[in-house]
């Protein structure tokens, strides 16, 4: 039983991210790569993800402003975006990416636009939740182990 | 970080941006990781470091070939501290695909012995077969997990060490106790 109340809150937050389907097992995979020498690895990867994928979101946005859609280009952008999202375990975002790509393949512009709006919502929601999570993690301090890290 | 004799190499290498070089230790497996995704490069780098590999991460097939090309030049001068023992590459990349990189490596007399592992988010049997037929050692479906990397490094380490001993002729140090 976690005695530290902040740590308890952190665990609850974490559990709900998984229970509500925001994150999948790949996030756990990343957590397992953290150690004393790399205690913030997951946060670093997530930060990198939001910085890097923000660029792709912008590209897609611009591409969707055109009169006629270049579905191949849109699909290519989304393939990239989906890949990164998958690598951090962003489950809902990944699902919307898959849907978007299906609409690209069936040349359904309306579907693309609708899905993209939903994707951006999920993307923003996840960002908020993860920022809160990492902030709390930093406040809660390192997990106590038998050998205290320096 | 300069190792004996590596300074010239590093200076030349610094002209190529987009890659990271860990200090060379010829006893460890040196992996060349190729992926156009920044996020995936960061992850694969960490996965490989955890499995005790030295990692050079580049963002394109072209840069990978450049890196190998330099390596060969240095080898000719007797410096092989930065030899690549394994190439792990993404399949879908702009410009040169992982498949094209695989072909180029296998077509080269200097590098065809280097095992190549392909990573892809798409689990397509035809694609996997094509890569294996072209000489890929293994195929990993993304997102990559630690167990995937461990598996590959594990079964490679035995073969690779035996190969290293053969290539070096005389052991500087026993690799196995």
From TrEMBL, chain A:
<dbReference type="InterPro" id="IPR045871">
    <property type="entry name" value="AHP1-5/YPD1"/>
</dbReference>
<keyword id="KW-0597">Phosphoprotein</keyword>
<dbReference type="InterPro" id="IPR036641">
    <property type="entry name" value="HPT_dom_sf"/>
</dbReference>
<keyword id="KW-0932">Cytokinin signaling pathway</keyword>
<dbReference type="InterPro" id="IPR008207">
    <property type="entry name" value="Sig_transdc_His_kin_Hpt_dom"/>
</dbReference>
<protein>
    <recommendedName>
        <fullName>Histidine-containing phosphotransfer protein</fullName>
    </recommendedName>
</protein>
<comment type="function">
    <text>Functions as a two-component phosphorelay mediators between cytokinin sensor histidine kinases and response regulators (B-type ARRs). Plays an important role in propagating cytokinin signal transduction.</text>
</comment>
<keyword id="KW-0902">Two-component regulatory system</keyword>
<feature type="modified residue" description="Phosphohistidine">
    <location>
        <position position="79"/>
    </location>
</feature>
<feature type="domain" description="HPt">
    <location>
        <begin position="38"/>
        <end position="133"/>
    </location>
</feature>
<dbReference type="Pfam" id="PF01627">
    <property type="entry name" value="Hpt"/>
</dbReference>
UniProtKB/TrEMBL annotation, chain B:
<feature type="modified residue" description="4-aspartylphosphate">
    <location>
        <position position="90"/>
    </location>
</feature>
<protein>
    <recommendedName>
        <fullName>Response regulatory domain-containing protein</fullName>
    </recommendedName>
</protein>
<keyword id="KW-0902">Two-component regulatory system</keyword>
<keyword id="KW-0539">Nucleus</keyword>
<feature type="domain" description="Response regulatory">
    <location>
        <begin position="30"/>
        <end position="157"/>
    </location>
</feature>
<keyword id="KW-0597">Phosphoprotein</keyword>
<dbReference type="Pfam" id="PF00072">
    <property type="entry name" value="Response_reg"/>
</dbReference>
<keyword id="KW-0805">Transcription regulation</keyword>
<dbReference type="InterPro" id="IPR011006">
    <property type="entry name" value="CheY-like_superfamily"/>
</dbReference>
<dbReference type="InterPro" id="IPR001789">
    <property type="entry name" value="Sig_transdc_resp-reg_receiver"/>
</dbReference>
<dbReference type="InterPro" id="IPR045279">
    <property type="entry name" value="ARR-like"/>
</dbReference>
<keyword id="KW-0804">Transcription</keyword>
């Amino acid at each position: 039983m976690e005695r530290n109340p902040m740590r308890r809150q952190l665990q609850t937050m974490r559990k709900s991210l998984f229970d509500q389907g925001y994150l999948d097992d790949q996030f756990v995979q990343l957590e397992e790569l953290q150690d004393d020498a790399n205690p913030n690895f997951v946060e670093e990867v997530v930060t990198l993800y939001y910085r890097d994928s923000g660029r792709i979101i912008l590209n897609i946005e611009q591409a969707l402003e055109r009169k006629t859609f270049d579905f191949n280009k849109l699909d290519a952008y989304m393939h990239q975006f989906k890949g990164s999202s998958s690598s951090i375990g962003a489950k809902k975002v990944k699902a919307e990416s898959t849907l978007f790509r299906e609409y690209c393949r069936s040349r359904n512009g309306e579907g693309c636009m609708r899905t993209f709006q939903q994707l951006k919502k999920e993307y923003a929601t996840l960002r908020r939740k993860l920022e809160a999570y990492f902030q709390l993690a930093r406040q809660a301090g390192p997990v106590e182990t038998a050998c205290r890290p320096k | 970080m300069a190792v004996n004799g590596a300074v010239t190499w590093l200076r030349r290498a610094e002209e190529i941006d987009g890659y990271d070089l860990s200090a060379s230790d010829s006893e460890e497996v040196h992996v060349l990781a190729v992926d156009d995704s920044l996020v995936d490069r960061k992850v694969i780098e960490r996965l490989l470091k955890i499995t005790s590999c030295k990692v050079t991460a580049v963002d394109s097939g072209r840069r990978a070939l450049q890196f190998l090309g330099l390596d060969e030049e240095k080898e000719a001068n007797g410096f092989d501290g930065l030899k690549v023992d394994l190439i792990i590459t993404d399949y879908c990349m702009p410009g040169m695909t992982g498949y094209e990189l695989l072909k180029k490596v296998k077509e080269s007399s200097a590098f065809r012995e280097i095992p190549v592992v392909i990573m892809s988010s798409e689990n397509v049997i035809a694609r996997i077969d094509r890569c294996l037929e072209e000489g890929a050692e293994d195929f990993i479906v993304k997102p990559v997990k630690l167990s995937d990397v461990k598996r590959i490094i594990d079964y490679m380490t035995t073969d690779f060490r035996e190969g290293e001993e053969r290539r070096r002729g005389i052991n500087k140090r026993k690799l196995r106790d």
